[in-house]
Each structure stands twice: as C-alpha cells, then as structure tokens.
Amino acid sequence: MPVLRDLFTRLFGRDSAPSSQKAAGLDPANLSAEWLIVGLGNPGAKYAATRHNVGYMAVDDLLAQAGDVLEPVRGHKLSVASFTVEDTTALVVRSHTYMNLSGDPIAPLAEQLGVPAERIIVIHDELDLPSGTVRLKKGGNENGHNGLKSLTERLGTRDYLRVRVGIGRPSKGGSIPEWVLAPVDASPEFESSIATAADAARLIVAEGLSKAQNEIHSRVK
C-alpha cells in the first residue's frame, strides 16, 4: 500500500501549479538557467501511470524534495520549475506535447536561455535496460525512442545527456507500443528506480556526468 500511495501522489499530487497560476503562466523573459532537466512523457491522466512516463515521474520526484511545483510558461507548450543545486540553477521542464513532439517546445527554450546540449539532461524510459536499472550517458542513438528522435531533430545534435530508466522489453512477439503505454508495476523496485533517476539528474548538475555515472552505476539494482 505505501508504494501505491506514493505512486498516486507522484502522478497526480505534485505535477502542476494551482489553477490560478496556470491561467497566468510565467513570463518567458524572466526565465534563466544554466541547465535544463527534461522529463519525457505524454500529457494527460490516460498516460500518467504508464512506462513511457517515467521521465515525468522522476522530475516530480526531484521537485518534491523541495516542495516545488511546475508552472506553465506563457506562449510555450511546457511547464517549468526553478531548481538550485548548490550554487547552480537548473530549470526542470515538462513538455505539454505528446512524446513524438517533445523537441518542439524544448529546443526553443534551450536556445532562448543559451543552454547548450551538453547541459540538457533528458530523463526517459529505456527498453534496452532491465526494469529498475538506471544508467547515464551522453549522446548515442535514439534506439527507436520517439521523444529522443524529436529532441535530436530539433536540437540538431545527439550530444545531450541521458538518464535512462529501464523498463525492459515485452516478451517475444509482444507489441512495443502496447508495452510502453501499459501501466508501470508499482513495486519497491520501481519506486527506487524513479528516486535514483531524480538523484542522477541532481548529481550531474552538481558534479558532472563522469562522477554521477560512477555514483549511480555503482548502486545495486
């Protein structure tokens, strides 16, 4: 029961600002950051608890540590929250578009803020890792992930940083679209992987990719 309760809170209790703030939205001219932390997923309650939305879940977990919430940005299809790691400012970002258009709002934001690809951290689901595993890397192929494909196309590079949250693959002959859009297993292992992904993003900002890899990859699954 605690795992299910924590999952429900993460999915529906910390993911957005109050309705009065939603109506106004943040002025994009007032935003500034040295890093972007982007959680990938699909918007709406229909997809909230699916494997494809672990990126959304991880950024909510990250923000929950400080009691922060995401707020919409006027004129942009995304919500953000400022997040400080030691003396470094990051913007935690969630796109309002569907997964295959993730790059459409993220790339203009990064350009506006002057944040290069090597300081954009993308948290996403990874079919090629066992469920519960979290791994970090810079660049590489998208491996069929439509959110990553969109980001690569719009950013013009693959050299952004990735926090890969393992969801495993369906059994032989199983449908990948059905698998990624199916509900997550609300288990302690799953909860741990989300918390680790959030921690990984913070570590990258604080200590750099190499040190974060050493720390995260040494943890027992």
From TrEMBL:
The keyword Transferase is annotated on this UniProt entry: no
Enzyme active site: H52
- Out of the domains of life, which is the source? Bacteria
Broad enzyme group: hydrolase
Query: Pfam families annotated for this entry?
Result: Pept_tRNA_hydro
Catalytic activities: an N-acyl-L-alpha-aminoacyl-tRNA + H2O = an N-acyl-L-amino acid + a tRNA + H(+)
Gene Ontology MF: a single term: peptidyl-tRNA hydrolase activity
| InterPro entries associated with the record | Pept_tRNA_hydro, Pept_tRNA_hydro_CS, Pept_tRNA_hydro_sf
Where along the sequence does the record put site: Stabilizes the basic form of H active site to accept a proton?
Answer: D125
Q: What is its main location?
A: cytoplasm
Record site feature (Discriminates between blocked and unblocked aminoacyl-tRNA), residues: N42
Which Enzyme Commission number(s) are listed?
Answer: 3.1.1.29
Q: Where in the cell is it found?
A: Cytoplasm
Tell me yes or no: is Transcription among this UniProt entry's keywords. Answer: no
| UniProt cross-references to Gene3D superfamilies, sorted A to Z | Peptidyl-tRNA hydrolase
The positions annotated for binding tRNA are Y47, Y98, N100, N146
Question: Which controlled-vocabulary keywords does the entry list?
Answer: Cytoplasm, Hydrolase, RNA-binding, tRNA-binding
Q: What does this protein do?
A: Hydrolyzes ribosome-free peptidyl-tRNAs (with 1 or more amino acids incorporated), which drop off the ribosome during protein synthesis, or as a result of ribosome stalling.
Q: Which family does it belong to?
A: Belongs to the PTH family.
Provide the assembly information: Monomer.
This chain belongs to which protein, by name? Peptidyl-tRNA hydrolase
